[in-house]
Amino acid sequence: MRVSQLWLDRQLTHAAYKTAQARVPVLLGRERKTVRTQIGIVGAGPAGLVLAHLLHLQGIESVVLETRSRKYIEERVRAGLLEQGTVDLLIETGVGERLQRECLTHHGIELRFNRRGHRIDFDDLAGGKTVTIYAQQEVIKDLVAARLAADLPIIFEATDVTVHGFDSAKPSIRFRAAGNPEELHCDFIAGCDGFHGICRPSIPAGVLTEFVREYPFGWLGILAKAPPSSEELVYNYSERGFALLTMRTREISRLYLQVPSDEDIEAWPDDRIWSELRLRTAADGDWKLSEGAIFQKNIASMRSYVVEPMQYGKMFLAGDAAHIVPPTGAKGLNLAVADVRIMSKAFAEFYKTGKTHLLERYSETCLRRVWKAQRFSWWMTSMLHRFDTDNAFDQRRQLAELDYVTSSRAASTTLAENYVGLPW
Ligand code: APR
Ligand code: PHB
Question: What global pTM score does this model have?
Answer without folding.
Answer: 0.94
